[in-house]
Design goal:
This protein is an all-alpha fold and about 375 residues long. Helix content is about 70%, strand content about 0%. The chain has one domain. Residues about 1-15, about 360 and about 365-373 have low confidence and may be disordered.
C-alpha cells in the first residue's frame, strides 16, 4: 500500500465547531427570555419592564417578532441542518438512526412525564395522550393534545432525520439538498389531499427549508463542496419553499409586522457571520451549550412552577432570575443523569457499525416554540 493510500484510509482529524456552542447557548436562552420575560408573566397578570423596553427599542424597530422567540427557534433549526449534515456524512443508516433516537427521546420522556404530573391540564392527561406525546405522534394526529408545549420542533427534527436517513446512500453528496427541498415541496403541494392528519404533517414539514439552509451553509462554507452559485441557488430555493409553505398554511406570519422570514434572515446572517469568526472555547459557553436541550425541555415545567410560586411574593425580577437559575440547575442534572448516559449507550450500541469520525460539536437542541405558534 502506498503512502498516499495509507493517508487516504486514515480517519479525518476531529475538529470542533466552537461557534455552534455560542449559537446553541444563545438560542436556548433567547427562548427562555421570551417565555420568562414575556409570555409567562403576562399569563400571570404581570408585565416585565425590561422586556417591554427591548420590544419597543430593539425587536420592534428591527422587525424581530415574538420577543426573540422565533429568532432562537430559527437558530436551532439552522444549527440542526448544519450539524446533522456533518454527522450523516460519516455515519451509516443504523448509527445515524440509533444515535438520533437516543438523543431525542429519553429527555423528551422525562419532560413529558414531568409536565403531565405538574403542569398540563388535568383533562388532557390520559394514557393515550401521554403515549402520543412520548412518541411525538400527537403532532401528526388530529385533534392535537399537547402536554409539553415546547416539543413542537422535535417532530420537525424527526422528519428531517427521516429524510436524511432515506438519502444516506448519497451521504457524500451535497446535492441531497435538492431531494430535501423537492420532498418538502411535494408535501406542501399535497397538504390537503389526505385528511387532517396529513395536513398537520405538512405543517411541520413546511419548516424543513430552514434546516436545509443550515445544510447548505455546511456543504458550501464549511466543507466547500458547493460553488457560490450552487450555494446561493440552494439558499434561494429553500427561502422560496419556506415562503410558499407560510403562504399556504400560515399566512399570518408573512406580514412585515409579524414576519417569520425577517427574523430568519437575521438568524441566517448571524449564523454565517459566526461561522467565519474565530471564537475561543469557554467553559461557561460550553456548559450553556451542553445543557441547552434540557433547558429547552424543562424550563417550561420547573421554571414555570418556580415563577408561579414566587411572582406574587417577590419582585418580578427576582422571580424571573430564580426561575432561570432553577431551570439551569435542573438542566445540568438532567444532562448528567439522562442525556450523557444515553449518548454513551448510543456510542456503545453503534461501536464498529460504521460510526466514522465526527468533526463537530455536540448535537443541537431543537428549539422552543415561540409565542403565537
Amino acid at each position: 500500500m502506498s503512502v498516499g493510500q495509507e493517508r487516504a484510509n486514515l480517519p479525518e482529524p476531529v475538529s470542533r465547531y466552537v461557534f455552534l456552542d455560542y449559537l446553541r447557548a444563545l438560542a436556548a436562552w433567547l427562548v427562555v427570555w421570551d417565555h420568562f420575560g414575556n409570555i409567562m408573566p403576562r399569563g400571570l397578570g404581570h408585565v416585565f419592564g425590561p422586556a417591554e423596553w427591548v420590544r419597543h427599542n430593539i425587536t420592534g424597530p428591527l422587525g424581530i417578532i415574538q420577543d426573540f422567540g422565533w429568532f432562537g427557534v430559527a437558530l436551532f433549526f439552522l444549527i440542526s441542518g448544519f450539524i446533522i449534515s456533518d454527522r450523516a456524512r460519516v455515519e451509516s443508516v443504523y448509527v445515524f438512526a440509533v444515535r438520533r433516537v437516543l438523543r431525542i427521546y429519553p429527555m423528551l420522556a422525562v419532560a413529558v412525564l414531568l409536565s403531565a404530573a405538574f403542569v398540563a391540564a388535568r383533562t388532557d392527561v390520559t394514557p393515550r395522550a401521554v403515549l402520543l406525546n412520548l412518541t411525538l405522534a400527537n403532532y401528526v394526529i388530529y385533534p392535537q393534545v399537547v402536554l409539553l408545549g415546547v416539543a413542537w420542533t422535535l417532530i420537525i427534527e424527526m422528519i428531517f432525520y427521516g429524510l436524511t436517513a432515506a438519502t444516506q446512500f448519497a451521504r457524500g453528496s451535497p446535492h441531497r439538498i435538492a431531494f430535501n427541498l423537492a420532498a418538502t415541496a411535494l408535501v406542501i403541494w399535497k397538504r390537503g389531499a389526505f385528511g387532517l392528519d396529513f395536513g398537520l404533517f405538512a405543517t411541520a414539514t413546511a419548516y424543513l427549508p430552514v434546516l436545509v439552509m443550515g445544510q447548505t451553509v455546511y456543504w458550501w462554507m464549511a466543507r466547500r463542496r458547493l460553488s457560490a452559485a450552487w450555494g446561493l441557488a440552494y439558499l434561494a430555493a429553500a427561502a422560496a419553499v419556506f415562503l410558499w409553505g407560510l403562504r399556504a398554511m400560515q399566512p399570518g406570519f408573512l406580514p412585515v409586522t409579524n414576519s417569520y422570514f425577517i427574523s430568519l434572515a437575521y438568524a441566517l446572517l448571524l449564523f454565517v457571520a459566526l461561522l467565519h469568526i474565530p471564537l475561543p472555547e469557554r467553559r461557561s459557553v460550553r456548559l450553556l451549550s451542553d445543557t441547552s436541550y434540557s433547558v429547552y425541555l424543562l424550563h417550561g415545567v420547573v421554571g414555570w412552577l418556580t415563577l408561579a410560586g414566587l411572582i406574587d411574593r417577590t419582585p418580578l425580577i427576582v422571580a424571573i432570575m430564580a426561575a432561570a437559575a432553577v431551570s439551569l440547575a435542573a438542566a445540568y442534572v438532567a444532562h448528567r443523569l439522562v442525556e450523557l448516559p444515553f449518548q454513551r449507550l448510543g456510542r456503545y450500541l453503534t461501536r464498529g457499525r460504521g460510526a466514522g469520525r465526527l468533526s463537530s460539536s455536540p448535537e443541537p437542541a431543537p428549539g422552543d416554540r415561540a409565542a403565537g405558534g
